[in-house]
């Protein structure tokens, strides 16, 4: 197990940004301390060398822009919050209206994915990685409470990347942290124009019997709908493309996971790319998973001259259901002083 630290660039403030690369001898991943962004996951290629199976940028300048949130941490509360506000004991808290000028998306400004985090390597014989930390001040993004945040990404000998989140607050506040990595398990299948092939040939299984109904602006209505007989039924593995004709733009939806408490870190999803045979198994303690099929990618210039068009990548964001602060019937997103917010997500790769 090896962790290597290198300089990645410098912010306008003069602060240096570092990139950490973690390897187990078979595969590796890289992440930067700016936004805790995962910048690369390298898996062995059939014809030798490695394939990078996540979307991103080659330079810091790309991550400073990073409108698609490639690989970044998301918080304080992932997803959309309706009308950019919520209440605690009749006190209303107002957030950034950074989604269509009406709603709050991924916590609002300043984005967690646009902050420089403290970072230190984690070294061990069986697992190695990076630990990131920062303090979110009381009132940051409009949320109450000073929150101490710790995020770690580790790789073990069994080709599993584990994402661990921990937070402690001084006031009652909603917390839902996630990672916004876009996967494409067959990045070698480039098109003639240099753009990525669609991920719609990926086969997906979601261990979820209900999904969150949303309105036209992707805000949950508060109703959890059975997936049976709908395009949202992934209980049996199917291609992402199978029911795409029934959708307006693609998947940008959240499923309540069926975890029964039997496993400490339950299986949430299985993703397979038929051409390469690669499989990603996702395990998580989070109550829900958002699947986003890159519906708003439009010619984004990525790593090594790659072009990311619509559906070039797919995100699997383990988190709470969006707009949970405004829906008491959803799994509780509230963290109290003296409590610890702790969650874990595992990405297990068959390489």
TrEMBL record:
Pfam families in the record: Aldose_epim
Alphabetized GO MF terms: aldose 1-epimerase activity; carbohydrate binding
Keywords recorded for this protein, A-Z: Carbohydrate metabolism, Isomerase
SUPFAM superfamilies hit by this protein: Galactose mutarotase-like
PROSITE patterns in the record: ALDOSE_1_EPIMERASE
InterPro entries linked to this entry: Ald1_epimerase_CS, Aldose_1-epimerase, Aldose_1/G6P_1-epimerase, Gal_mutarotase_sf_dom, Galactose_mutarotase-like, GH-type_carb-bd
Binding-site list for beta-D-galactose: 180-182, 252
Top-level EC class: isomerase
Reaction(s) this enzyme catalyzes, per UniProt: alpha-D-glucose = beta-D-glucose
Pathway where it operates: Carbohydrate metabolism; hexose metabolism
PANTHER family (alphabetical): ALDOSE-1-EPIMERASE, GALACTOSE MUTAROTASE
Family to which the UniProt record says this protein belongs: Belongs to the aldose epimerase family.
The protein, known as: Aldose 1-epimerase
Species this chain originates from: Treponema vincentii
Lineage of origin: Bacteria, Pseudomonadati, Spirochaetota, Spirochaetia, Spirochaetales
């Amino acid at each position: 197990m090896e962790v290597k630290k290198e300089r990645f660039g410098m912010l306008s403030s003069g602060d240096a940004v570092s990139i950490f690369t973690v390897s187990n001898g078979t595969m590796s991943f890289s992440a930067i301390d700016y936004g805790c962004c995962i910048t690369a996951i390298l898996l062995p290629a059939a014809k030798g060398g490695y394939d990078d199976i996540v979307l991103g940028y080659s330079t810091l300048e790309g991550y400073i822009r990073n409108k698609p949130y490639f690989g970044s941490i998301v918080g304080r509360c992932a997803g959309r919050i309706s009308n950019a506000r919520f209440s605690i004991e009749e006190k209303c808290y107002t957030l950034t209206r950074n989604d269509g000028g009406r709603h709050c998306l991924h916590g609002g400004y300043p984005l967690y994915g646009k902050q420089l985090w403290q970072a230190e390597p984690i070294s061990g014989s069986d697992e190695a990685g990076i630990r990131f930390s920062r303090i979110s001040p009381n009132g940051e993004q409009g949320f109450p409470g000073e929150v101490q945040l710790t995020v770690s990404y580790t790789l073990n000998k069994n080709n599993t990347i584990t994402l661990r989140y921990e937070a402690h607050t001084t006031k009652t506040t909603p917390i839902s942290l996630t990672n916004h990595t876009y996967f494409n398990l067959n990045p070698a299948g480039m098109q003639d124009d240099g753009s990525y092939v669609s991920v719609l040939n990926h086969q997906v299984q979601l261990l979820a019997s209900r999904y969150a109904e949303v309105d036209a602006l992707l805000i949950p209505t508060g109703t959890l709908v059975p997936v049976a007989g709908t395009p949202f039924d992934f209980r049996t593995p199917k291609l992402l493309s199978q029911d795409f004709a029934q959708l307006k733009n693609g998947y940008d939806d959240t499923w309540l996971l069926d975890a029964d408490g039997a496993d400490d870190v339950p299986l949430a999803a299985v993703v397979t790319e038929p051409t390469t045979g690669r499989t990603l198994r996702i395990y998580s303690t989070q109550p829900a998973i958002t699947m986003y099929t890159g519906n708003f990618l439009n010619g984004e210039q990525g790593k090594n001259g790659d072009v990311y068009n619509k559906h070039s990548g797919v995100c699997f964001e383990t988190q709470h259901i969006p707009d949970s602060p405004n829906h008491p019937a959803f799994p509780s997103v509230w963290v109290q002083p003296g409590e610890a917010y702790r969650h874990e997500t595992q990405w297990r790769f068959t390489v």
